[in-house]
Prior knowledge:
Radius of gyration: 19 Å
Oligomer: single chain
Helix content: 40-55%
Distance between the termini: 33 Å
Amino acid sequence: MKLDPKQTAFGRHETFPLRYAWLTKGCAAVIDRPDIFSHPDRAMVVLGVGRNMVSAIQYWLQAARLIEFTEGQGVPTDLCEVLLGADGDPYLEDEATLWMLHWLIASNTELATGFFWFFNRFAMPRFQEPEVRAGMTDFTVQELGIERSQSTLKSDVTTLLRMYTPASDKDEDHLDSPLGQLRLIESDTKAHSYRSLRTTRPFLPAVALHFALAERFADEPEQSALPVRLMLYGGNDRAAPGAVFRLSEEGLMASLARVMERWPGHYELRDTAGVHQIYRGERLADPLDILRGHYLRSAA
Length: 300
């Protein structure tokens, strides 16, 4: 998605980070009764959570692009079935699923604008929470031309840090936030600071980068090639896989090499007029087919 200043969202998660069972339970509830979230009392019983958590689940379902809501009716997207259906990974046991959910959220400029900004625009490798809030404030005012209350932006920043920082104590929210496993943000409790470093990340599942690149090409079907630098650092108001996955240049190139080895014919690297570019191949797959193929192989 391309960033549109007129379509942004901050702080709609009720300060609750994403939890393990929420997406699967939420998808199942909508499939069973599309208007479930229009009846909070019933949703509380079905989902086994409080009223504010019901709102948070509804938000994360949308932020992860799994459910679309129109006039109170929830409609599961194809991603909902492929990712979390019986043939997918409903219990989030495959780490690749977590990486792809992270991509879906961090590339959602419309419904997870603060998360998009942090992973695609915020470049400080080491920081404290007030520095993130100040950066997000500057982004909303100077680039989006809108004003959001400091409480709303603080909510986004606090929730993001809690959601992605690995558990270091007995905090319930930390323990139940699956994206903390990715270690994209780490805390230094003694210094009251955080770090989010670009590294080689050799453990990044190749399918996650393949999926993200396929989505980027699908988002710009007129483009036959995308500059490597754009995929590493961003800059055209769309998510950059290298930035979202916190990859160094070496890491992006190594991960891309693994993708091209495993899925030959989907991408090519070429220098055009001195610009290193990733070209779409003749066999470039649909992002959903990439997921289907991955889970089919995992089940074999």
